[in-house]
Design a protein that fits this description.
It catalyses: 6-phospho-D-glucono-1,5-lactone + H2O = 6-phospho-D-gluconate + H(+). Keywords: Hydrolase. With 240 residues, the protein is α/β, with parallel strands linked by helices. It has one domain: Rossmann fold (3-Layer(aba) Sandwich), CATH 3.40.50. It is 30% helix and 21% strand. The protein is built from 7 helices and 11 strands. Helix 2 links the parallel strand 2 and strand 3.
Amino acid sequence: MDKKINIYKDVEALSEGFTSLLKEELSKREIVNVSLSGGSTPKALFNYWVANCKESIDWNRIAFFWGDERCVRPTDEMSNFGMTKSLLFDKIPTIDKKKIHRIHGENESKEEVQWYTSIMDKYLPKENGLPVFDIMMLGMGDDGHTVSIFPHQIDLWNAEADCVTAQHPETGMERISLTGRLVNNSRNIVFLVTGKNKAEKVKQIIEEREKFADIYPAAKVNPVNGKLFWMLDEGAASLL
């Protein structure tokens, strides 16, 4: 596996590092297809882009997708799309609205899973017979989950589908999630992880991935042909 571990002094430096990767991909291809994640680190990244990159990134050449979404309306504060819209899309007018492909969390989940599968099939190039993202942005929960595949449903990672319905282990809230075969088919997979509370899982997954691959979904991230980047702040990297 082609794995790179980058440690940054703070979330702003991490945002700069991710932006460099995005610009590199933009230099290679006409349209860059990015799968976004929710969470606090992407929030900081979106704020960084609005403050520093309105002009320096060719926004109309980026197509936006999501790795997962909560089954809520886009106006709900839990919505990954809603968060991205308010922090990023509403503030950068050069983003092409036609290239924003959101998961409709408000729709009936089984129908939406099929619809989003068809959207990825329509708009993404194919490699290994599957849709391929140029950049797959991932977060990691304290419990080792990634996208919306949690340890109690780890078998969903290996589902034959590109997209599945999952449940949060405590609240039971439904979520729509991409599966492992799409995550691992991406050209660049980037874990954005910040905070000391994640340090133990980061250490376990980076240093002993195979040992934890049946316990934490994040340990199942293993690109087929692409590169894997860990972009960590000093807290998340403190046990490495």
